[in-house]
Amino acid sequence: MNPLISKLGEKMYAGSNTQKGSAYHSFDGFEGNGQAGNVKQRVNLILKNGNINGLNGIDLGCNIGGITLSISMAGAKMTGVDYDQQSIDVARAYAEKFKQKIIYRCEDIDLNTIKSINAGFVVWFSHWMWFCKKHGFEIGLEALFELGRKKLTLYFETSLGDGMAGNVMTANGINESKMTTILKNCFTKVSKIGVDENWRKRPIWKCTGNMPREII
Questions:
Q1: Per-residue pLDDT tens for 179-200?
Q2: Which fold has domain 37-215?
Q3: CA separation for the pair 37, 25 (Å, rounded)
């Protein structure tokens, strides 16, 4: 195991590491012992429902990069973004181990991050609730609107009231139906492509952007 794993959790970040030396995600080559299971199910849903080969993709809230790495190995040109420097260090080490040319950025994800995105697709799994918790629910909605204005595909999953920041979703009445309505108000096409059995059976959506500005 990469020695960087043992340093995870030395500095705690909200919504990131569960305890020292552990991480949420498992993937081929790394067995995490956090609360979530292997990322393979989510990765397979992306690969089954979209042709990402050769496209530029961004993984928002990438943590230790399990999804980022897996999608890169499937042929996409990936960038991973997370505010946890320890997780980014691990992600970079595994990208090097698997000889993947992935760009990793350690930064807070805010509305400026969203507005600056120029990619063929975005993966935003689990992190949107944390985005809303930090920046406010209205800014979270604006972030989705901004993505909907772009000509890209969003693969999206978030808490529907569970998880450490789930109270943000509960306070705003977010359930699967309301989340679907929000996404349909932001994107030209929205479809539920599956359920993540490994993480509290959260629904996963595929959303196609390029929404006319006058509709927003």
A1: 999 999 999 999 999 998 877 7
A2: Rossmann fold (3.40.50)
A3: 6
